[in-house]
Design goal:
Shape: globular
CATH class of the largest domain: Alpha Beta
Oligomer: single chain
Helix content: 40-55%
Radius of gyration: 23 Å
Strand content: 15-25%
Mean pLDDT: 91
Length: 362
């Protein structure tokens, strides 16, 4: 019996077949690609998410400016097709090295930097309507989670509450994870692994009956998708804990509304119901953190000015007040500044107080 082709294989082969048809007709082969830029991004007021617009650009083979990108697109598509046929997965770095070879008859490489193959993979998501993970390409693991949750992952039963000091390492692809048991009043996501380690050592997730999750800086796609699955499938609220600075606020923005670069998959990534727990500007005086502020640099002020003009923040009075107060302070504060009140102050006092009184920004 002939095995049915996957949607992913069909989509990739469809791309190749279309190029061949154009060549056979004597046409200049082209690949239409939706534009992934701020100029083609819209904020959907109804869903409260960032969405990709309808602007399309064509990538032509017989065009000096397009030829290399055209070739990169077909090369990475071929790599993904082979991965799917062999039922194997590759990392982003693997794909880069698989694509990095010299074009026959020239001294030019198909790709020189990983940013090139990474960008082409995101283009392929749009062209094929299949996510990078569905094309069997995964990013590096970069996140930890702990809580009263039991899952099944590729036949293995894993208890997030019984994995020692490191917790469960969140993979790039979480689509096939099955949730067998969950007990949690909320999920607390934080940008810093060091803060997660403090809460984990203090068994915050056990005492407060919650799930704690972190990355190291910007949130990975695997983490965003895991958060979305947990809140959509089990109606668990999510609270975001970041530094009091424009960069932390951007992390919250990406989780809540989606990102400009990945606007084409906002429906799988954005989580409009998340709330910002802190750190707030009001926390500085309340918890006596004035001596622990870090003076703004020009880059911080520039970033603050930029994000306050985002469509999803522009008409939000709460956030505009927060941005104004931060500008008046002319400084930022890290989550770890709370350690000045005691090593477990964040676990014992700050977080329980904030969550009980529902001091969130939305």
């Amino acid at each position: 019996m002939k095995k049915k082709k996957s949607n992913q294989l069909s989509a990739l082969e469809g791309l190749g077949s279309e190029v061949v048809k154009q060549i056979n007709k004597g046409k200049n082969p082209e690949i239409p690609v939706p534009i992934r830029a701020l100029s083609n991004v819209e904020f959907d007021e109804k869903t409260k998410t960032v969405r990709l617009g309808k602007k399309i650009s064509a990538r032509y083979f017989f065009n000096v400016a397009h030829a290399k990108k055209f070739l990169q697109t077909l090369e990475v598509a071929s790599i993904s097709k082979n991965l799917l046929k062999e039922q194997k997965h590759a990392s982003l770095r693997d794909v880069f090295y698989m694509a990095k070879r010299t074009i026959p008859g020239t001294k030019v490489n198909i790709v020189d930097e990983q940013t090139e193959s990474d960008s082409v993979l995101e283009d392929l998501e749009l062209i094929t309507d299949q996510s990078r993970e569905q094309l069997n390409v995964n990013a590096n693991k970069n996140g930890s989670v702990a809580g009263k949750v039991v899952i099944e992952d590729k036949g293995d039963t894993i208890d997030w509450g019984r994995l020692g000091s490191g917790g469960w390492s969140i993979p790039s692809n979480v689509e096939n994870i099955k949730f067998k048991k969950i007990s949690a009043k909320y999920i607390l996501y934080m940008e810093k692994a060091a803060v997660w380690e403090r809460l984990h050592e203090d068994k915050f997730w056990d005492k407060q009956n919650c799930i704690i999750m972190s990355s190291q800086g910007q949130t990975t796609r695997g983490i965003r998708r895991l958060l979305q699955r947990l809140t959509s499938e089990f109606k668990i609220p999510i609270y975001i804990l970041t530094d009091m600075d424009p960069w932390g606020h951007y992390i919250y923005s990406v989780i809540k509304f989606g990102s400009i670069n990945l606007a084409h998959i906002s429906e799988k990534m954005a989580i409009p119901n998340v709330k910002f727990l802190g750190i707030h500007t009001s926390d500085i005086e309340k918890y006596k953190l004035e001596k622990h502020l870090i003076k703004f640099k020009d880059t911080d002020l520039s970033r603050l000015k930029q994000i306050k003009e985002y469509a999803w923040f522009k008409d939000n009075k709460q956030w505009q007040k927060e941005f104004l107060e931060m500008k008046k302070l002319g400084a930022k504060a890290e989550i770890q500044a709370l350690s000045s009140r005691g090593i477990s102050f964040i676990s014992d006092t700050y977080l329980p107080e904030k969550i009980k009184s529902k001091e969130f920004l939305d």
